[in-house]
Structure formats: C-alpha cells, structure tokens
Amino acid sequence: NPYNKGIVAAGCYNGQVILWNIEDAKKQLEAQRSADDDEQGSEETLIPSIAPSMVSSIDKSHSMCITDLIWLPAGVEVTKDGKVAIGSDDNASSFFATTSVDGRVLFWDTKVAKKKESEAGENGGEAGGKGSSGNAQGSSGSSRRRGKDSDKGTEWKATWSVGLVREQGGDLAATKLSFNLKDSLETAFFAGSMDGEIAYAEYHKPEDVQHPEYTKMTIDAHFGAISTLQRSPFFEDIVLSVGEWSFKIWKEGLSSPIFASASATTYLTMGCWSPTRPGVIITAREDGMIEVWDLLDRSHEASMVSTVSSSSITSLKFYESSSSSYQLLAAGDSMGKLHILELPRNLRRPILNEKEIMQSFCERELERVQYVGSTLKTFKNIADDSNKLLDLGDKGVDQDLQDEQQQSMLELIEKSEQEYLKLEKEYREKFNLDAPNGAANGEVPVS
User: Which residues on adjacent β-strands are paired with residue 66?
Assistant: First the structure.
C-alpha cells in the first residue's frame, strides 16, 4: 500500500487475493535484531512467518491467474452498486483493483480486514517467535484457504466487478491496468491484453442503466502480450505501452499511437517512465539488457544500452526518494536476482524546460498522426471516386455526370498537392534548407 507500507496485498495463480499486515512482525524483527546485537556470538536472526489477515473466497475471486494489482488513489471508495465516492480519510488508500486473463477487473476493500488486523498480528508474532511457517497456517489454515475467517466465518469478496470485452466479441484476456492516480474522481482506465490489445474502459456504473458497456474502445496495439501499461508521471493523458519488440506512446482518446519506437533486436519484457525526466523511457529486454530512450535527444534509437543480467529482465522499478543527488533503479531477472542500478546525472536531472519541450514533442507527433490520417482518407476518397467514374463509364451514364465526378476527383488531388507543398515549405523554412548549400541559420559558408 503506497500510503501504508505495512499493508501488503498479492494476487495468486488460482485467482485468489491475499492481504497481510506486517507492522507487528517488523517491530518484532527489529526488537530481535537489537537483542542479538547486545549478545555476542548469537545465532542468525530468524525471519518471522506472517499469517495473512484475509484471503479472498475462492469462488468469489478470479477464475484464472491474477496478472496485475493496482492500489487506487487515496480516499477513493467503490461501492457494491458501482458508485465511486471519496471517503473521510483522504490520506489513506483502502481499495485496490486486480485483473486477470478471465476478463474481469475486481475492486477490493481492505477495511473489511481491519477488525482482524490485531488477531493477524498476534498469529504472525507467534509464528515468528518459533521461526516456523507451520503455525502460520495453524488451525485456521483450511478456513483461510476457503476465504473465511475461522472464528466468525467472514467472507472476503470484491465489492465491485467490471467485465472487459473485445471488439470482436469475447472476454479481454487482461494483463495490465493503468488508472489515473492523480485525479481521484477519474473512473476511466486502460487495460492491456495477452493478444496485444488496449482497452479503454470505465468502472463507474451510470445512473439508470441496467447493463452498461464498460469497455468504450479497444485498439490493436501490439502483436504480442502487453507487458507494461503506464501513464506518464508528468502528463496524465499520455500512456506508455510495451509489447513484443517495440514500445508505443498513446494519447488518451485517440485510437492511434502518437509515437512508436523502432523494433528492437530482441523481445522487450518491461518498460517505465523516468520519474524525474519527462522525455526519458527505460525498456528492458529478454537478453538481460536495458535501453534508455531520451526522446529529446534522439527518437529513432536508444540513447544508451547497458547489460544488466545474463537472463531475461522481468521487472523494473524506480526507488522513491526525495534526494536529487542520486537515482536508483531496481531490475529483477528471471533467475530471481535483484540488480540495483544508479543512473548517471544526465539521465536523472531534467534539462531546462524539459516538460514544455516534451509537451511540444507530443503535440508535434499528434499533428503528424492527424495529418497522415487525413491524407490517407483523401487518397481513399480519390480511389473511391476513380472506381465510381469507371463504373459510370461502363454503365453508359450521361457524359455530364462523368465530367462532374472527374472534376471532383481532380479537386481532391489538387487539394492534396497544395497541402503537401505547404507542409514542404514550412519544413524548409524551419530548417533553413533554402540557404546556400543548405547552410544552417541562413549563413553562407566561407570557402
């Protein structure tokens, strides 16, 4: 939990959700280490086993492996009828969302387990004192596996469920979620799938709609499973996706990416935004290397490539720190090893007005996408008019009507040509390509 580090939630392969409170165990471990420091020659400190506070009911959980778990913004509460409200405590997060390849997004309330936290802490303390995991299951182990508390039969289940569907029909095999964590009342979110699709959906149930469609749009984004789906920490409507051999940048509301990287030489496994530089993206590869993309330096290739591991990198996470003197990046690999990397100064400190420059970059790429889309539409209209003109000639239609269709087609071609010439002129003026010998800044080179 980002607001309470002592609360830990996890998703299981069988679709269940588990919740722990590790605060008491942390205190016990610190006390045990202090006692060991006072005694010379003491044995190694035993790591306590912690019994879960709650385990979800298996028949009220996901039916397949959980692929992502996201804590909602502080104060956000999702009721059992799909309404979103802001709770009294806006400095704590008590709800999180999970997704699975079963095509559902479930919302869980951790306040259900609060009344059992003290009991869970006691169970964890006893187990930790013996240094054994046996008591962690104890007499209540079987009931916890069933998702019920042994004493009162409390059943922990999701408060709200949203189904994700594909545009072609069927459930969306979701792998990743991305919520707007800065706007507590924003209920729209993105979901990536095993088939490379990105879904844009809502988890709020509209008023007076019995069976609403929560999936608003699906996009064929990648050829393989999406491994990363992350909003920019600087621009709420900009989203990064990573899948197969490339990463793409999307703007909320558009069905086409505003930027797509060149294909990598090997499979990309992860990716993330830099928390301090708006124009920097880190991607991880299957061959154990990471790539640093500084889009403001160059966008056609990575600015830096570094070998981290001999095995595939499976996770990337920046260390949250207020210090500007260093920046740490954790990388986990498929062999279970954790690598801590320190980024150089030029990759952690933003350049002057970097956020504004990156915003201009996104706007420029957006204009390019819109121009390409309109041009393709124009060419399609020209092709359609040509086919109509041929059909009219074959059917022996009046010559005046044929001339009218031909004139319309010629006007479309002329319009397209004028737009191209205007774009070319702006480009040449911007880069001073009309200067003698193509000199930059309009300066004539001296021989």
Answer: 100
Rg (C-alpha) for the chain, rounded Å, is: 28
Decide if 272 contacts 318 (C-beta within 8 A). Answer: yes
Could you tell me the pTM of the whole model?
0.78
| pLDDT tens column, 248-257 | 999 998 999 9
Report residue 227 as tokens: 């491994």
Q: What's the angle, vertex CA 320, arms to CA 9 and CA 269, rounded to 5? A: 70
Reduced to 3 states (helix: H, G, I; strand: E, B; else coil), residue 213 is: coil
pLDDT digits (tens, 9 = 90+) for 162-201: 999 998 888 999 999 999 988 888 899 999 999 999 999 9
| Cβ atoms within 10 Å, residue 442 | 9
Q: Which residues contact 301 (CB under 8 A, 6 or more apart)?
A: 262
| CA distances in angstroms from 268 to 82, 206, 262, 312, 313, listed in the order given | 36, 38, 12, 9, 9
Q: Dihedral of CA 52/53/56/57: which sign?
A: positive
Amino acid at 179: F
